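Predict the assembly for these two chains.
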Amino acid sequence: MPVLEIRGLTKAFGGIQALAGIDLHVNKGEIVSVIGPNGAGKTSFFNVITGMFEPDAGEIRFEGESIVGLTPSTITHRGVARTFQNVRLFPNLTVLENVMVGRHSRTSQGVFGALFRTKAFLQEEQEIEDHARDVLSFFGSRLRGYREDQPAFALSYANRRRLEIARAMATEPRLLLLDEPTAGMNPKETIELTGLIGSLRDERGYTVVMIEHDMRVVGQVSDRVVVLDHGIKIAEGDYDTVASDENVIEAYLGRPVNNGART
Amino acid sequence: MSTTRSITDFETKDVVIQGALAALAISFIAAIGMLGEFNNRILITSLLSLGYLAIGWIPILFGYRASAEETIEGIDPPIKGPRDLLVGGTVGAIAGIVVSAFAWLAASVDLTGVFIHTGPGMRSALTFGQGIGFGSLLMIVFCTALGVFGAALHVMTPTVRSVIGVALGTTIVIAIFEADAKELFKGFRIRGVASILYSPTGGLTIVSAAAVTALVVAIKVYGKGHGPRVVYERVKLHHTSQTPEMQRRNSWIWGAAGFAVYLVIPQILGKSLSETAVTVGLFLVLGLGLNIVVGQAGMLDLGYVAFFAVGAYGIAMLTSPFRPAQWIPQLDFWVALPIVIIVAAFVGILIGTPVIRMRGDYLAIVTLGFGEIIQKLFLSDWWKPVVGGAQGITNVPSVSIGPVEFAGANSKMVFYLVAILVAGVFVLSHRLQYSRVGRSWAALREDEQVAEAMGINTVTAKLLAFAIGAVIAALAGALFAAKVGSVFPSSFKLLVSLVILVVIIVGGLGSLRGIAVGAIVLIGVLGGPTLPGLLREFGRFKLLIYGVILIYMMLKRPEGLLPSVLRSRELHHSELTQDAWLDKAGDFEEDEEVTA
């Protein structure tokens, strides 16, 4: 059964048709890349799936159940997490606190627990902290040690991107949406993160949908590539099929689509 | 290389501007009548009155500032010397000349139409009662001397400066808080000290002022290395070196000691100081409650007084024998309180529901409106049969626990109640801040959309903050009603909301200790919206001083007196980032991504 099933997804902003009837299915354990030129509707696609915008028409099913019309927090609770294209951390909270916030939907203690420091509350706080540290360890020592207590704004750009992924991981998603995870990274960091995206699936068992511009990354980790242009899916298939698709080449305005890719 | 500056090395323009600004400040203080009114209050017999203190600090400050040089990183500051004294003196002299000109102007042109206090009283105060000619000369000498003194403070080494500053400061504080100090001496059963220290006509005698100053200097010089911080560190070290079992036993001892202090405090404070402490306590509770909404959840609520009113009216309507709606059963305070808490939470959610969709300025304006609506409702004829309209509700009985009555007029007893409430709300605020709920508020404040995407139900989180804030305000209101014994709509004006907000902003938004400091400084020392503080003389100028403090804080220290970590991070973002870079300059190996 597909984890994510999308049929006829449509969303317009005023006169601009951001999404014009997109169909997509993502199977469990797949890594699917969504590519397309600027303004193709990729980020809108993510925003609609995660409930930040409600679609005008169409159906989104996560694990067989419709998630259209649910609030973003409910959708996160169901098991969908995302990162943002323009890194959006909680800049003044520490690295550890950022990840701890991600545990919100998996924990339940409220005001009374906090006020009376009940056993359940203390246990849960410990669990939140341990889990946050565990998630941070996914990136080796980069976000551990003294970094844990640094405010997020003091991190380097690459580390901010990593922290965003860690925060999304803390929500224990089954479907992870990554919006340009390697943007702004240098080649070495990109290679490292590409490997990590692979292990997100292999070790953690997440299904990953990723928007990415770096074709090397797309080619390396994707099981399947979906190409959007003007809100329409113009091609779908494995990397090599898509890379040689005429529509795709045209969408990128004649720019060789395999520019910089493995040859 | 440090250089000595030549004696004429200063910008004439800067010096003139500084002098003119000092003169403007002095003239303003005189023109609004502060000088004249404060002159009645003697601080040191035949030497200093509060009025001259109110203008005297200005030439000192400006002299200090004008003589100080710009510090540029990487360049050694020039050696301090006579040039600085000259600059300070010049600034003072210019200030004196301009102030004298102002006195002369007030004498020849009638300014009383605009500033009603610029009559002969002010003129004689500005000329030391010596006539315009000789008086002006005195004023110029006065300002010049103080300007030189300010510059001298700058020239001194920091150690000497701190000794002189603390000594003079202590003496002045002891002189200003004469009435309160007398109360305290009475509380400690050493009334004799007061009669030695203060002259019978008011103010310190010159001898006692000199003695106090000398004593403080002696303590500062010989007491080095035994200061409170050092002692604290030592106690802490001792504490951490103990076994957990001993620590637990010690915490019992500390608790008992704390409780004993708690029992004794109001007896020492006496009636009027207890009264002030009670007011500070109520505002502290309100500040902590508003801090949950504004500081933690980041929603600017300008109508917070509404919830205070709900608590006060709730108790009055349920417990007063003279309640307008007699069909409501008369209850005991402790039975009524839970009802009031539930109602307040409900009102919080009710007001919160429509407003939480808004952000920032819009939210502020809408809450402001709701605050006013609630006050107007309590004043209205529509609600008059229940809440009594402008006549309010009187004869609200005081709180009692068993046979112990906490009569409102007996501020010492009320202190006990308020202290417990303050402690409770402190614990509540602190524990919430470092919990799952507190983190969700912090996330909300940082980025609402992302908080929602991370699984936080922002609607519930916001309503929870509103409801908890409302309950805390209602608790303060309930106690207020029982203490004062009557509630009137006029007690719940917009000004109260604003004062609470100023308390937490000046103290430090989000910082619990900061809010305590803010409440003590603003409510305790200056006075609340209606009640006087320790500086009773400031009553009329209270709001002016509030404004000055607020402007100064916003410009120079927006994070507050004792800021929270979060808030200072936010306001000094860029500096911190730079520091982080500098700190890491050494370990680039591990941090190669920083260079990318």
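The mean pLDDT of chain A is 90. The longest strand of chain A covers residues 2-13.
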